[in-house]
Amino acid sequence: MSPTSFLSKINHIVVVMLENRSFDHMLGFLYQSTNNVSPLGQPFEGLTGKESNLDTTGKTVAVFPIEPTDPHAYLRPGADPGEGYLNTNSQLFSQQDAPVPITPALNNGFITNFDYTLGWESKEPGQVVKGTQPSQIMGMYTPATLPVLSKLAAGYAVCDHWYASAPTETFPNRAFVSMATSQGFVQDKSNSIYTAPSIFTALTKKSATWSVYGYDAPALMRGSVADITNAPESNFGEFTDFQSAAKAGTLANFVFLEPMWGTKGNSQHPNYDVSKGEQFLHDVYYALFASPVWNQTLLIITYDEHGGCYDHVPPPENAIPPDNSAGELGFDFKRFGLRVPSVLVSPMIAAGTVFRTTSATPASTPFDHTSILATVEARFGVPALTKRDAAAPNVAGVLTLQILRTDDPLSGVKVPTSAVAPPASAKPDKFEQAIAEHAADLPIHDPTGNGHHRDSTVFATGDEAKAYARQRYQQYAQQRAAKKKPRVA
């Protein structure tokens, strides 16, 4: 039976997208003990331990393991590394402007860029773990430190050549995973709203179902993707709703899960507590593993972008521009972002799989976030949204087992915990602020006037921002429901 026909057995594609970690930083040491060869004998593009960068004094600093017993192990690299297009250029090319014409990246500017970032972050309270040094950007997590992510990667399939869709920060890359374009944007703005057609509306047109779940607040995606802001309330929920749907076997065909945003959350954004993300992945996995639809489910775990964390592999330069949008900062969308951790989980996947595109030539198109869209499109007969997802390879070929597995690679794994909390303020982070700003834009009728009102509240804490957003969406839902009620003669 061909991989395509195995994909036809998948009725639920579940995506978890976490925050701002590179492949090497989270999984580079996955198979170091076996010389970067998987149990199936497949080569793995991991770390040898010799990869390095120069610091500002010209000293060579090699990658080193972050062990569970290290001080502040789950808060590494100790601060938020440089994000965005210009910082990424500095990390890849040691200059903020990419070379013209483009030359292969050397990935040699991570320490110097982190040094620059620490220079201004250390002046702001609650931003940096005490004692953080620029060299800590070369710290890489080990399987012992991240047992949940590592056991899923080794127990199912790890994609060692999966790249962010653009060499920049969060919001543009999250746009790519829902619309296969960022409409030319490469910069984060908390009030960014993308207006391109989305995979969700495309699924609806094919009579396929979808759901987007926030964790403990309305989903950020609902406000940032204009195409779904006004979708039925039944398409949205929070993590407990996802768990209930999984338990009942009523999961939608396509499910997108967001983490808990904020400094107390589980998104794994530096320098938040990475161990909380381990617990989140554990909970997602077991919600599905215990579900009556487990045998029909493909779980995709990925990260939106590298977030300034070190990776040794230069990103490919053969990306297809998604559309004719004029790129910010002169970017032409012909380069991918850096590698990000991506793990594929299903009882149809052989343990120890290292999964790449079928061709090993440099000219082949690698996996990026639009490969998620390509997979959904292949499974449910949805046409491509842009030129980018039309060119993207899907992951159907990872589903090779006709006899479904019943073992549990996470059996006996103890979820790690951090002994210390992140040194962050209670103010809303950019994600909590964005959720609130999008909620403020909802067209809620003002009962005291003849139009709509937009709140401009300043929030003291992230919890306040999320509570406001939830209340605002509830009010919006109530007004929409009231409009649908038939008038009584």
Short description:
With 489 residues, the protein is of the alpha/beta class.
Figure out the total of helices.
Answer: 15
Based on secondary structure, the structural category is: alpha/beta
In percent, how much strand structure appears in the residues? 5-15%
N/C terminus separation: 61 Å
What's the β-strand tally?
16
Number of domains: 2
Oligomeric state of shown chains: single chain
Can you summarize the main beta sheet? 8 strands, mixed
CATH architecture of the largest domain: 3-Layer(aba) Sandwich
Unreliable stretches = none
Average of pLDDT: 93
> Taking strands numbered 1, 2, ... along the chain, how are they ordered across the largest sheet?
9-8-10-1-11-12-6-13
Architecture overview:
This protein is α/β, with parallel strands linked by helices and 489 residues long. It has two domains: 3-398, Alkaline Phosphatase, subunit A; 430-484, no CATH class. It contains 15 helices and 16 strands. Strands 9-8-10-1-11-12-6-13 form an eight-stranded mixed beta sheet. The longest helix has 23 residues, at 462-484. The mean pLDDT is 93.
